[in-house]
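TICKET: design request
STATUS: open
ATTACHED STRUCTURE:
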């Protein structure tokens, strides 16, 4: 997912049973490359017929996005762009007997009128993981939207270029006011 600041070794995103992730960041702050890296690494592992430590196969990659999302034009196992398709995707994920990774692009724009995504996040499904991306500024103001569930339901949160004054509220933590090193060009994305 990235490079550790203190030793320059790779950083991995590891989600355990019942955990999900939110990747927050302002426009052009590396949300999309982060999403692409996750999807590409899963596809690469599947092509090499890799099996994890638990003996399970690499998950299918299902995407929930808007019609304007660049993810819509990539090859995934399944893509849902409207409320009806999203409900069907979530229903199938809940009944899946194989691992499924659900990527939700621009989560603040996805309409969850029937609470399908909310219910998926609240379920303790051992084979389903959800990784969503969104803009923290918009997510902070959407307390009735399902994104709030990403923030309070055993979720690992990654932020690309965090706003230290406000993003701590979204992440339910205090963010450091100063970075240990200067955030020079390319370092904060």
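STATUS: resolved
RESOLUTION: sequence designed for all positions
ATTACHED SEQUENCE:
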């Amino acid at each position: 997912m990235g490079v550790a600041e203190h030793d320059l070794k790779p950083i991995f995103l590891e989600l355990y049973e019942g955990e999900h992730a939110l990747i927050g960041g302002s426009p052009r702050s590396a949300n999309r490359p982060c999403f692409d890296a996750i999807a590409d690494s899963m596809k690469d592992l599947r092509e090499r017929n890799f099996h994890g430590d638990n003996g399970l196969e690499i998950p299918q990659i299902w995407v929930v996005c808007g019609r304007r999302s660049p993810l819509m034009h990539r090859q995934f196992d399944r893509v849902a762009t409207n409320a009806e398709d999203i409900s069907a995707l979530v229903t199938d994920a809940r009944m899946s007997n194989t691992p499924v990774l659900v990527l939700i692009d621009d989560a603040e724009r996805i309409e969850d009128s029937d609470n399908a995504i909310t219910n998926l996040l609240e379920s303790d499904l051992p084979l389903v993981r959800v990784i969503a991306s969104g803009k923290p500024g918009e997510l902070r103001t959407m307390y009735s939207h399902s994104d709030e569930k990403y923030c309070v339901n055993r979720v690992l949160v990654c932020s690309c270029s965090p706003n230290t004054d406000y993003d701590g509220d979204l992440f339910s933590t205090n963010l450091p006011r100063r970075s240990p090193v200067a955030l020079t060009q390319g370092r904060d994305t």
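CLOSING REMARK: Residues 143-153 have pLDDT under 50 and may be disordered. The helical segments are 31-47, 83-95, 116-122, 136-140, 147-152, 167-171.
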